[in-house]
Amino acid sequence: MKSLKQLALLLACALMLVSNAFSQGAGNYPDKPIKIIVSFTAGGTTDILAREVANQMSIRWKVPVIVENKPGAAGNLGTEVVGRAPPDGYLLLANSIGPISINPTLFGNLAVNPQKALQPVALLGDVPNILVVPASSGVKTWKEFQAYAKANASNLNYGSTGIGTTAHLISFLFSQKTGINATHIPYKGAEATRDLVAGRLQFMFATAPSVIPLIKAGQLNAIAVSSKKRISAMPDLPTLNELGVEIATGAWFGLFAPAGTNPAIVKKLNETVVSILEEPVIRQKLLGLGADPVLMNVQEFTKFVRGDFALWAPIVKASGAKPE
């Protein structure tokens, strides 16, 4: 009986030590610089959102929060770096739908599976894609676009920022649902938008932040947006659903930590990001870019990430997309 009591006492002490370590791990965090890896080049939507959040984190926590761009292999390089990192909360990943939801199916044999190696932390922004055409085409409405596509059926090209990107896969869905057939011309980044402006491409689905400045400058015409509802940055722009095309998806961007990171640290990161996105100045800035700051807790974002992967896996397979 005595030994059982001693064992119970030892177990209680051990649990207390674990609990204290857990709370201390979150309570002292962060006490040194944090680095956020961005899987893409500087100036893109992922980079813009990451730097905005990193700056606000640094102000609130009074520690440097450094953003480092590590592009390559369609976003897989930066993803792998963080997926293999120690789960201490000091190396994080700003990433997007491509490397997280699409690449595991597109590549099939990734060195690090982001669905297993990463812990979702917070959604940074939900960013729809806008169907855009060159202003020089004279096409301004959905009816005009349909007529243009029909008249140029044998010479219709659309661009994307790469095979398996949302720009490519939404265009694939778009073609399936509308019967508009066009040739896919993949690019490696911003060159696609430049060729669209120049009229060498006939249309493209591009992320809102990347094309809204060009739309406002009169270089591109916006036809529709891929989101479930209209966006604040362009409230007069109809959704595809409103036009009878059943597509309601786009790109999203989020913050991740290595799997196994202390849940208390993950929770603290999430709550900080959410409070940053709730700031009126930050919210208006993101809305102006075409990014909708959707607020989710850790559990909600984790469920969202898992569900998004399940959504895109069959679409990637049906498209026949192969990695470049």
Give the overall shape: globular
Helix and strand element order: HEHEHEHHEHEHEHEHEEHHH
In helices, the fraction of residues equals: 40-55%
Mean pLDDT: 90
Task: Look at the helices and sheets and give the structural class.
Answer: alpha/beta
Spatial separation of the terminal alpha carbons: 68 Å
Poorly predicted ranges = 11-24
Radius of gyration (CA) equals: 22 Å
What's the story with the biggest beta sheet? 9 strands, mixed
Our estimate of the beta-strand percent is 15-25%
Count of extended strands: 9
Structure annotation, total helices: 12
Task: Write up this protein.
It is a single chain. Strands 1, 2, 3, 4, 5, 6, 7, 8 and 9 form a nine-stranded mixed beta sheet that branches. Strand 1 (34-38), helix 2 (45-61) and strand 2 (65-69) form a beta-alpha-beta unit. The chain is built from twelve helices and nine strands. It has 324 residues and is α/β, with parallel strands linked by helices. It is globular. Helix 1 runs parallel beside helix 10 (263-278) and helix 4 packs across helix 12 (298-319). Helices cover 47% and strands 19% of the residues.
Describe the secondary structure blueprint for this structure.
Layout: H1 2-27, E1 34-38, H2 45-61, E2 65-69, H3 76-83, E3 91-96, H4 97-107, H5 114-117, E4 118-134, H6 142-151, E5 157-160, H7 166-178, E6 183-186, H8 191-197, E7 203-207, H9 208-216, E8 220-225, E9 250-258, H10 263-278, H11 280-289, H12 298-319
Helix pairs in contact: 1-10, 4-12
